[in-house]
Amino acid sequence: MGSAETAPAAPSFLVADDHPMVRDALGTALRQSFAGARIETAGSMAETMALLEREAEIDALLLDLDMPGMDGLTGIATVRASYPSVPIVVVSAARDGRTMRRVMDLGASAFMPKSASLEAIARVVKAVLDGEVLMPPDAEASESDEEAIDFARRASQLTPQQWRVLALMARGRLNKQIAFELSVGEPTVKAHVTTILRKLGVRSRTQAVILSRHLALEPPKEPIKP
Q: Domain range holding 83?
């Protein structure tokens, strides 16, 4: 007699969003679509990174872009550099095609607007778990910024710590301030800055900061009404 087939393990998800109601809704949708799914939640970038470090078997990360500590698109780039094997499904209120394209270029597997139905989000998560990468049609239709694509390609060489240094550089921090915030020595920061410039293919700190504008979220095209 052949041995009985082993049932596939229930997936494990991390839902990262600073709104508890959104976290609860996404968690409910995942539990309904994936039997026995284990759901971890985070409300900030710091909590997200701590959970990813602690939980070795996260099958997919559902990530909000507008969350404390994300620094525009720096957060997604840091997650991708730190945990390259964890699929990222961005679930965001952002609707513009340029942001969608940049998110995908920085390593996300899918982009879903928060206005999408929970059923649609669950379908996308299932496709991502099956290994698919789903480029939003709006991103393909609206993106003509080759410079942003080239930046994403070069920036993909940065380590997680170099991403943190670049984010602080973009905020105007000096090496001494960066060293303090990251709890490292100033010579270490100088070495990181030198490597960042080399990997980005620029000669000055100013050029690196100008390039990092591609990590900023696009402002909403219409004011949000209360």
A: 12-142
Question: Which pTM was predicted?
Answer: 0.76
Which of 220, 186, 201, 183 lies closest to 95 in space, CA to CA?
Answer: 220
Residues 137 and 90 in one domain: yes
Q: Do 113 and 160 share a structural domain?
A: no
Length of the chain: 226
Statement to judge: residues 35 and 50 lie in one domain = yes
Which H/E stretch holds residue 129? helix 118-129
> By three-state DSSP, how is residue 204 classified?
coil
- Of 121, 142, 163, the one marking the end of a domain is 142
Q: Which amino acid is at 155?
A: A
Cα-based distances in Å from 186 to 86, 168, 181, 194, 197: 32, 14, 11, 12, 17
Residue 219 has pLDDT above 70, yes or no: no
